[in-house]
Write a structure and sequence with these properties.
The complex is a heterodimer of chains A (91) and B (157).
Chain A (H helix, E strand, L loop, with lengths): L8 H10 L4 E7 L2 E8 L2 E8 L3 E7 L8 H9 L2 H6 L7
Chain B lengths: L7 H32 L28 H21 L15 H8 L17 H9 L3 H11 L6
The chains are: A alpha+beta (91), B mainly alpha (157).
């Protein structure tokens, strides 16, 4: 499958359906549509532009936490706290 | 000189803006016609015929004030305001033409959450958005990443 742009979006969603991969659609910029899908360990964001397609992927280990401080740090974007826990890279 | 339109989405956005502008102009003309009608008042006093300017209207409020026509004019003005608001509506994400000439540093400080600097490629801080878009079109991975982060509304202030 060659993805050249947003015209190939439906075909790509068909592929995800065939593979039983959960996905959802978002729009964060007026010139693109984002397809986010998840498989174990990875969340992938695929950006469909008019004339190109690219993607980012985010790796995780599916671990769960019930630490309210950590949750709050994520919500607040408190990177210094996340850095102390070794979750965020030091910048 | 106008910046060339870069994509189909931008072209469609321009068309939509022009359609709204045309609608506003039609409303403007309609409002103007109503105002002209509103100014006509058969009971408005005129300068007596034996004086200079005889037959001309004297100063005084037109029939538009407080009259049904005035109310219509007022309603049209309200609609005009709504149309103007619609014209100034900016879709989320992406860049306006003015923003294309801003440096990444200026753009991020004005429009983006500070935390994007954690992932924004630092080498482009003093390049304009337009320059980075051109680099992205040439296939620079760092430029593509930079544009992707800057463009998305979820990382905006």
């Amino acid at each position: 499958m060659i993805l050249k742009g947003v015209k190939d979006l439906i075909q790509f969603l068909g592929l995800l359906r065939d593979e039983n991969v959960h996905f959802f659609l978002e729009q964060h910029s007026f010139d693109s549509v984002t397809v986010t899908f998840t498989i174990i360990q990875f969340r992938v964001e695929v950006y469909f532009y008019e004339d190109c397609v690219n993607f980012s992927y985010f790796k995780g280990d599916e671990g769960v936490s019930s630490n309210p401080e950590l949750l709050l740090a994520f919500a607040k974007g408190d990177y210094s706290f996340l850095e102390t826990l070794g979750i965020a890279d030091k910048k | 000189m106008n910046t060339p339109i870069r994509s189909l989405a931008e072209f469609q956005y321009e068309v939509r803006s022009l359609k709204l502008l045309l609608l506003k102009l039609k409303f403007d003309r309609f409002a103007h016609q109503l105002q002209l009608l509103g100014k006509y008042n058969a009971d408005q006093p005129r300068i007596p015929a034996d004086q200079t300017g005889g037959g001309q209207w004297t100063d005084g409020a037109g029939a538009g004030d407080g009259s049904p026509l005035g109310a219509v004019t007022s309603a049209v003005s309200t609609i005009l305001g709504t149309v103007e608001s619609a014209i100034s509506f900016v879709l989320a994400g992406g860049f306006t033409k003015d923003q294309m000439n801003m440096s990444v540093q200026d753009f991020t400080s004005q429009f983006c959450q500070g935390r994007i600097n954690r992932e924004l490629p630092g080498q482009f801080a003093f390049n304009t958005i337009e320059e980075i878009q051109n680099l992205a079109k040439q296939g620079s991975d760092a430029a593509i990443k930079c544009i992707k982060i800057l463009k998305q509304d979820r990382f905006r202030k």
